[in-house]
Specification:
The chain folds into 2 domains: about 90 residues, Immunoglobulins (Immunoglobulin-like, Sandwich); about 70 residues, Sandwich (Immunoglobulin-like). Helix content is about 5%, strand content about 45%. The chain has a 4-stranded antiparallel beta sheet, with no helix packed on it. A 4-stranded mixed beta sheet has the order 2-8-7-4, with no helix packed on it. A 4-stranded antiparallel beta sheet has the order 11-10-13-14, with no helix packed on it. A hairpin with a 7-residue loop joins β10 and β11. The termini are far apart.
């Protein structure tokens, strides 16, 4: 009978030795501006439920704990390019906390442009004006500040997810401007 209390004492001590929670995800994949992002942050050990906290997430991203709180997912759509440093912490049910510092690079997306060409006008013209709008049929705003001498133009000042409508005019050597050309459409992904 003397060994029974010692055995019970060992079992009791064994039940108190719960592993501490630890974040196991040590790095995150890079992201791209205006492209959906998702990355999991995992843990091991500890006793749930966990409490997650963070400081300084990149703009456009949020951290959402899983249903069992053992992991969290960083999701969203980054809004600007940056190299961003931030902290994520998780606290186990017993009060122990684990914190991981992350560096996440958000890269600029592929720049878009609209390359335009049109039929060359009469030989006696001085140049062209190019106009752009976001509504079919106008209104249009002039893109060039001086006459274009070529019948091509690359519009690099375009926004992702926007449709643009373009028209060109001819300007003769006396400064007389023709009516609008047929409309061209550029859909920027």
């Amino acid at each position: 009978m003397k060994t029974f209390p010692q055995f019970a004492l060992i079992l009791l001590l064994g039940s108190l030795a719960v592993a501490q929670v630890k974040i196991t995800t040590t790095s995150l994949p890079d992201g791209t501006v205006k492209t959906p992002y998702s990355a999991a942050i995992d843990t091991k050990g500890g006793q749930t439920p966990f409490k997650w906290s963070w400081v300084g997430l990149p703009a456009g991203l949020k951290l959402t704990p899983s249903g069992d709180t053992r992991s969290a997912t960083l999701t969203g759509t980054p809004t600007k390019p940056s190299t961003h440093q931030f902290d994520v912490s998780v606290q186990g049910h017993g009060g122990h906390m684990s914190t991981m510092d992350y560096t996440l690079t958000i890269q600029q997306g592929t720049p878009h442009s609209a390359a335009l060409t049109w039929k060359a006008g009469a030989k006696n013209i001085a140049g062209y004006n190019l106009y752009r709008g976001t509504t079919s049929g106008g209104p249009y705003s002039q893109l060039n500040s001086s006459l274009l001498t070529s019948n091509s133009y690359t519009d690099s000042d375009v926004a992702d997810g926007t449709t643009y409508y373009y028209v060109a005019t001819e300007v003769d050597k006396k400064g007389n401007e023709s009516g609008y050309s047929d409309q061209a459409v550029a859909v920027i992904p």
